[in-house]
Amino acid sequence: MLPPVTVPASWAGLLAGFRSCFTAPSFATFCALVGGLVQATGRRTVCAMLAGAGLSRRWSHDRAHFFFARARWDVTEVGLILARLVVARLVPAGAAITVAVDDSLFKRWGPKVFGRAWQHDGAAKSPRKLGSGVCFVVAGIIVALPFRIIPLCLPVLACLYRPAPKPAPGRGSSAGSSAPAAPTDPAGARRLTLLATRVQRARTKLQHAQDRKTARAIRLAANGGWLPGSVPDLDTPIAQAEQALTDATTAHQQALAEITEHGQTRRTRTPKPKTKTKTEVAGSYPTKTELAIAMVTQLAAAFPDRTIHVVADAAYHSRALRHLPDNVTWTFRLAKTAVLHQRPPAHTGQPGRPKLTGPRLGTPTDIAATATWQPTTIHRHGEDHPATITVIDCRWHNSLGTVNVRLTLIRNTDTTTGYDLALLSTDPTATGTDLTNRYATRWTIETCFRDTREHLGAGQPHNRTQTAVHRTIPLQLFTYSLITIWYTTTGHHPDDLTRRRWLHPWYQTKTTIAFADMITKLRHTLTETITEYPTTHPDQPTPNKTNGGCPTCKAATA
After folding, report:
1. Considering only CA atoms, which of 210, 335, 184, 339 is closest in space to residue 263?
2. What is the rounded distance in angstroms from the CA atom of residue 308 to the CA atom of residue 347?
3. Which residues pair with 308 in a beta bridge?
4. Helix 24-39 with 466-486: angle, nearest 10 deg
5. Is the CB of residue 137 less than 8 Å from the CB of residue 149?
6. Which of 250, 278, 66 is nearest to 164 (CA)?
7. What are the pLDDT digits (tens) for 146-189?
8. Confidence of residue 519 (pLDDT cuts 50, 70, 90)
9. What average pLDDT score do residues 2-10 get?
10. For residue 31, which of 47, 43, 17 has the smallest C-alpha distance?
11. Mapping DSSP to helix (H, G, I), strand (E, B) and coil, where does residue 80 land?
């Protein structure tokens, strides 16, 4: 029987909510790897998670790899349980849920890594903004914590994004093209080159034979049927020329036959794959917006009595937004080239199709030139900033069709012309200030990506198989949410900030708890519980004799 893993009661109670997602052995591995991920230092590979849990000599490393690559569990089911946990413990009862959606590229190299591709990387330092790795679209719930000034985004769902492959050169030609397919190996290319050379030589010999036959016949006719210095013979020279012509023709036909046979053999061995249409490729490779809508739809089904407000950047809009669930609103940054129209007038009852749009409003720049601006205060990054806004109800027919949207233009106080930010939302009841403050919380998902990379090593495990790639990075993102829930409900103590200032005197201006403080507190709690000390030193701490644990954890374990 596998040895049990000892964890604090507060942490074990939090992980117990996921018991229904795993089998008994897999749940034990899940608890051990999540705890090991919290305590691991250096590169957070799968084996490092096992070593961080103190089980590197008790469990085989294959058990940890089996958990990600072949064990029976669903990462989406784990994410939905995590979402219910976040809403139940950190979101006020009956309040709307704000969800941030964004994607991040996790650097990976190697042709055998599933989903790896060269794609856009917003964090890249190069001007081209390209990177090699796997890209995940993440949906996180934004929560306001009592001990923090700025909210946090807790990831609850993540999907792997795979860019659609580009068609190979020459695949776009018409079906009736008769150009031969290029060989796929160097040996075949050399073989075809030699055969083509033989054909060219056979054609040259054939032409020379025809020229000699014609020239000899002309000379015989001009000299009365005989050549100077020879006995006149009309049959022998012509017969020789005809024989040479026959030999050249035979060689030419044999060379052509060899080329044909070689091409048929290659086509038999490697049949040309059927080229997929653009519709088939798009269906097998969903876009980032489609993945985001799918995750938000799952959250809407999990919380049917809650309103879900989604905030996203300018890349997350498409025609798929026309069919959102009834309890979901979508707010995103509008492109400066978008052309908007007024809402159509009411139907008059006359025959004919009702109008889909009203008069043309133009681009956001055109609207800002004639808009009436109102002063307001925007809460961003924990501070209040004065600004001016204007709100217009309209339609974006080219993208969202007949969906009624609300345009909000924001201008800083020092801006006199144009606008600084344009937001478009499907929420028809929210004010311009509410939409702006809601969108300002979107940046918390960017800090979430930074913290998971720095403190949890997101993207560092060397998984390559499809199932393992789909599971490992989402589990690291979910651990970020679990640590935040544990610290908010159990681990927080009012003296944590004071103690951090005392240990680091150069942080006198520190006014809020960061994620680094949360994970440090949990590491101390886990270490005091599961660390085994030698029995030759009884004065050292033991699992039942803690050394300076937090009062909250002591009360929970008592």
Report:
1. 184
2. 31
3. 97, 328
4. 70
5. no
6. 278
7. 999 999 999 999 999 998 887 655 544 444 444 444 444 455 55
8. very high
9. 65
10. 17
11. helix
What 3-state DSSP class applies to 303?
A: coil
3-state secondary structure 221-245: HHCCCCCCCCCCCCCHHHHHHHHHH
Take residue 401 and report the two structure tokens written for it.
Answer: 């069709």
Label residue 417 by pLDDT band (50, 70, 90): confident
Between residues 24 and 554, the one the model is more confident about: 24
Give the single-character DSSP code of 441: G
pLDDT tens digits for range 236-261: 555 666 676 667 667 656 666 665 55
Dihedral class, residue 320 (left if φ above 0, else alpha if ψ from -120 to 50, else beta) = alpha
Residues in the chain: 558
Closest CA to 424 of 317, 344, 319, 342: 317
Amino acid at position 116, single letter: R
What is the reported pLDDT for 537?
Answer: 43
For residue 97, give the nearest of 142, 139, 152 by alpha carbon.
Answer: 142
Q: What is the DSSP letter of 557?
A: H
The alpha carbon of 486 is separated from its chain's Cα centroid by a whole number of angstroms, namely 28
Q: Which residues of 368-378 are buried (b: 16+ CB within 10 A; e: fewer)?
A: beebeeeebeb
Whose tokens are 């507060």? That residue is 10
Looking at the DSSP bridge assignments, the partners of residue 100 are: 140, 311
Averaged pLDDT of the chain = 81
pLDDT bucket at 451, cuts 50 / 70 / 90: very high
CB of 394 within 8 A of CB of 340? yes
String of DSSP letters for 366-395 = HHHHHPPPEEEEEEETTEEEEEEEEEEEEE
Share of the chain above pLDDT 70, in %: 75
Cβ(153)–Cβ(445) below 8 Å: yes
User: Coil, strand or helix: which one is 159?
Assistant: strand
Q: For residue 67, what are the CA distances in angstroms to 26, 158, 217?
A: 7, 18, 88
Structural tokens at position 302: 């999990």
d(CA 480, CA 452): 7
For 11-21, b/e burial (b = at least 16 CB within 10 A) is: beebbeebeeb
**Both structure tokens of 23:** 């089998």
pLDDT tens sequence across 213-223: 776 666 666 65
Residue bearing tokens 């201006």: 509
Distance CA 386, CA 379 (A): 9
pLDDT at position 266 over 60: no
Which DSSP helix (H) or strand (E) runs through 404?
A: strand 404-412
Burial of 344 (0-12, 13-18, 19+ CB in 10 A): middle
Q: What is the mean pLDDT of residues 304-312?
A: 95
Summarize pLDDT for 94-110 with one digit per residue, the tens.
Answer: 899 999 999 999 988 88
Which of 511, 454, 517 has its CA nearest to residue 491? 517
pLDDT in tens, 461-485: 888 999 999 999 999 999 999 999 9
